[in-house]
Amino acid sequence: MPMLTYVSLGLYFVVMLAIGLFAYRRSTSDVSGYILGGRQVSPQVTALSAGASDMSGWMLMGLPGAMFLVGFETIYIAVGLLIGALVNYLIVAPKLRVYTEVAHNSLTIPEFFAKRFNAPNSNIRIVAAVIIVVFFTLYTSAGLVAGGKLFESAFNLNYELGLIVTLGVVVSYTLLGGFLAVSLTDFVQGCIMFVALILVPVVAFQEFSSADKMMDFAYQSIPHFSEGMQNVTMLGLISSLSWGLGYFGQPHIIVRFMAIRSVSDVKIARRIGMSWMTVTIVGALATGLVGIAYANKFEMTLTDPETIFIVFSELLFHPLISGFLLAAILAAIMSTISSQLLVSSSSLTEDIYRVMSNKEASEKDMVKLGRFGVAGVGIVASLLALDRSNSILSLVSNAWAGFGAAFGPLVLFSLYKANLTHKAAMAGIISGAVTVLFWIYAPVLADGNSLTSIMYEMIPGFVVSSVVIWVVSYLDSAPCEQTTELFHEAGRVMAEQK
Question: Number of folded domains in the chain?
Answer without folding.
Answer: 1
